[in-house]
Write a structure and sequence with these properties.
By secondary structure, the chain is mainly β. It contains two helices and 28 strands. It is 2% helix and 44% strand. It is globular and about 50 Å long. The protein binds calcium ion (3 copies). One calcium ion (CA) binds next to loops.
Length: 345
């Protein structure tokens, strides 16, 4: 654990400071983010044509939803830029893990018994559908954890009746502290135990609230008491406003007594960018800008798209002014072995 010092409590949670661990002499060596990730490439179909989702403001996550060993895409997005209604699309990998290929023509919209899932995410421009997958109930079928960035975080439990065309039942995970825009989310491993956690980032990242991941066999769920049992990560300095994902990206973060994370930050030019951060002794700083997205409103996750045990960054961005809903998805492949390897093809 890189976490130390309990500070105070509010809304039930414990408050802790990140990365107060004593450093071994000589252990402090900076990392170069260009050594951690490849340059971004747009996801494309089998013929090389870049995938355009036709949905607005997608949040992509890599997961093998149909269990065939090939890692697929799960995309939370809105029906369009003129609606605040969001959905989730499962996009099968038409290629291999080594060479993924995606076409939105093959996307399958997540549905519940009553029909396609539609969620009010509060605002047609600033509401989002932030998704990540775990196996919440340890039945071998992937479930989806969703923040609507407005009023609620939900769990979509896969009913296990179909691998290819699954149906889900939605249940509440937790209500936001307040119904408000910009109640963002992130994920990854914030306490350094190797298990992915859920990160609640209310009020555009004013607080980072950790809902711990719990491993049960091969499955992971998050603390079921949600915000009541969460841990407030107490650190100062530069922070992203949304989609903060921690991981030991360099493989040396623990040894250096730091927490590494990526997120969507606002750059000096006022544009949102994909950035790499490091927290040390309770102080966070932006180490580097990893990418300047080509379009508006990037949203990201850290997940392993090609299943090589090197954590990747997936993000989407779109063109909205003249070409509504023209969202594409990009991957920055990881270069460092730091993640569990997915099942073989
Ligand atoms: Ca698959
Ligand atoms: Ca499950
Ligand atoms: Ca990878």
């Amino acid at each position: 654990m890189r976490i130390a010092r309990i500070v105070s409590c509010g809304f039930g949670p414990t408050v802790v400071m990140l990365s107060l661990g004593a450093l071994a002499a000589g252990a402090e060596t900076g990392v170069k983010p260009e050594d951690l990730f490849e340059k971004p490439v747009a996801l494309a179909g089998p013929d090389g044509t870049p995938m355009v989702t036709g949905k607005a403001q997608g949040c992509p996550f890599a997961a093998d939803y149909d269990g065939d060993g090939t890692i697929d895409l799960v995309l939370g997005a809105k029906d369009g830029m003129d609606t605040a209604t969001g959905g989730i699309w499962l996009i099968p990998n038409l290629g291999t893990n080594q060479k993924p290929a995606f076409s939105f023509d093959k996307a399958f919209r997540v549905a519940e018994a009553a029909g396609p899932t539609g969620v009010n995410c509060g605002c047609k421009s600033s509401g989002h559908m932030l998704v990540q997958c775990v196996d919440w109930n340890n039945d071998g079928f992937l479930d989806i954890v969703l923040s609507d960035t407005y009023q609620r975080t939900s769990i979509l439990l896969n009913d296990g009746t179909s691998r290819g065309n699954p149906t889900f039942a939605m249940q509440k995970f937790f209500d936001m502290e307040k119904k408000n825009h910009a109640m963002y989310a992130g994920g990854g491993d914030w306490d350094g135990d190797g298990v992915t956690d859920f990160l609640h980032m209310p009020f555009a990242g004013a607080n980072f609230k950790l809902v711990k991941g719990i491993r049960e066999g091969d499955a992971v769920k998050f603390q079921e008491d949600g915000l009541q049992g969460c841990t407030v990560l107490d650190f100062q300095g530069q922070k992203p406003r949304k989609c903060a994902w921690a991981w030991n990206f360099s493989g040396t973060a623990k040894a250096r007594g730091v927490t590494e994370f990526v997120g969507v930050a606002v750059g000096g030019d006022g544009q949102e960018e994909i950035a790499f951060f490091e927290v040390k002794d309770g102080q966070s700083r932006q180490v580097a800008t990893l990418a300047k997205p080509e379009g508006s409103t990037p949203l990201l996750t850290a997940s392993d798209l090609n299943g090589d045990g090197k954590m990747d960054i997936l993000y989407s961005c779109g063109v909205f002014k003249n070409e509504h809903d023209k969202t594409r998805v990009w991957v920055m492949y990881g270069k460092v072995a730091n993640a569990p390897v997915a099942a073989a093809d």
